[in-house]
Design brief:
Layout lengths: L8 H11 L2 H8 L6 H8 L4 E3 L14 E3 L2 E3 L3 E3 L12 H11 L4 E4 L6 H7 L4 E5 L5 H14 L3 E5 L9 H6 L12 H5 L2 H9 L22 H8 L6 H11 L3 E6 L2 H9 L4 E4 L13 H12 L4 E5 L5 H9 L4 E4 L1 H33 L12 E3 L2
Parallel strand pairs: 4-11, 5-6, 6-7, 7-8, 8-9, 9-10, 10-11
Antiparallel strand pairs: 1-12, 2-3
């Protein structure tokens, strides 16, 4: 199996599973506790159906939309995800280049394995930075200021990871960063010699944006969950979010909003966007899916800020359902990470091409000429 055999999310996942050692694959694939929320994130899209309009003279649909002050060529972009160097030796550089090629946002995690400056130098495409509030205020300020100097277009503050979720697969597979050989993981690394050789032959693993601030930034021997618990500030508040919005001074999203009340509060403190997200089902298991919460939140704050749906996206139809119910755009993480593990930059490009083609084709079949025509009339919920 190779990239030319990958036609959908499941295919890219299958190839990534073939290419990646067990601990690395399951870090992408897993969720928290019983993984109920992880499953629901995608299942929620099946709670309603699309209702097409016929004889609509669609022609070539306009897939462009505007988010964070930038026009993007399709209403889907890459979610911020940590440690991409683990999935392919080119890591964030591969993802950023692929996103630029497709005219959409690349999003950088605080815990990226390339630095803010490195990505700014290799990509002229739209870029979003994902911020965490650290206990060290100086580190948080440093990240914001470096993004300003490097020309990033937007910033989001992730608010649902004040402590790490209970990701049992990581414990079961012995996941650590950087990877360590243990009795549990030795066989898996040995069975994936290409990944192991590429990992050893390329630049040393490090969390490039924070390595100069903390020893944990270059070697998290105990695991990423302990880094979160030790470095992130569990006392983060709305005042911290408002401070970051003002210090940044540009398009800013609160990522992890899941209630109407928090969406309204985000408007009040000056956020320009919210990202409906439960961290890919990796934090509070048993919580609602973003798609389930979208209609109520869109009714409450639609038109007051941009709404990004993040979570469970597998198909172009999922994107169109979200846009019909009030989302401005969507973002996805697992989809492009599996593609990265499947084939590096070419893999991410292949996944983005598949999603682009699905959205385009489905807009034609739905009878929509442009994104602005998508609305609740296109949706029927099942009884």
């Amino acid at each position: 199996m190779n990239l030319k055999d990958c036609y959908n999310f499941a295919d890219f996942r299958k190839l990534a599973k073939k290419n990646l050692p067990g601990p690395i694959f399951h870090y992408i694939d897993g969720g928290s506790d019983d993984e109920t929320t992880l499953k629901r994130n995608t299942e929620a899209f099946s709670s309603c159906d699309l209702v097409p309009s016929i004889l609509a003279s669609v022609g070539e649909p306009d897939m462009t939309t505007e988010v964070f002050g930038k026009k993007i060529k399709m209403p889907l972009f890459l979610s911020p995800t940590a440690m991409q160097r683990l999935y392919h030796h080119d890591g964030d550089k591969a993802s950023a280049r692929a996103a630029e090629k497709f005219g959409t946002f690349y999003s950088m995690s605080t815990m990226a394995t390339s630095s803010i400056e490195e990505i700014a130098n290799i990509s002229g495409g739209p870029k979003l930075f994902q911020l965490y509030i650290h206990k060290d205020q100086g580190l948080t300020d440093n990240l914001i200021d470096r993004c300003k100097r490097s020309g990033f277009n937007a910033m989001c503050l992730t608010v649902d990871t004040v402590v790490a979720g209970n990701r049992e697969r990581d414990h079961r597979w012995g996941f650590t960063t950087p990877p360590k050989l243990t009795l549990k993981s030795l066989m898996s690394f040995a069975l994936h010699p290409r990944w192991s050789l590429n990992y050893l032959a390329h630049e040393k693993f490090k969390l490039a944006n924070v390595a100069h601030f903390t020893k944990k930034g270059s070697s998290i021997a105990k695991g990423v969950m302990e880094y979160i618990n030790e470095q992130y500030d569990p006392a983060m508040s709305w005042k911290d979010a408002e401070y970051c919005i003002k210090r940044w001074g540009g398009p800013f999203a609160i990522k992890g909003v899941m209630s109407v009340e928090d969406a309204k509060r985000s408007v009040d403190i000056g956020a320009s966007a919210i990202m409906l997200s439960n961290h890919g089902g990796r934090q509070l298991d048993g919580s609602r899916s973003p798609f389930d919460q979208l209609p109520a939140i869109a009714d409450a704050v639609g038109g007051k800020l941009e709404i990004i749906l993040d979570g469970g996206i597998r198909r172009g139809t999922h994107v169109l359902k979200a846009l019909s119910l009030g989302a401005t755009a969507c973002s996805f993480g697992k989809g492009f990470l599996f593609a990265l593990g499947a084939g590096g930059q070419k893999g991410v490009e292949a996944m983005l091409q598949r999603m682009h083609d699905e959205i385009r084709r489905d807009m034609i079949l739905l009878g929509c000429k442009n994104i602005s025509e998508l609305n609740k009339k296109n949706i029927a919920f099942r009884l």
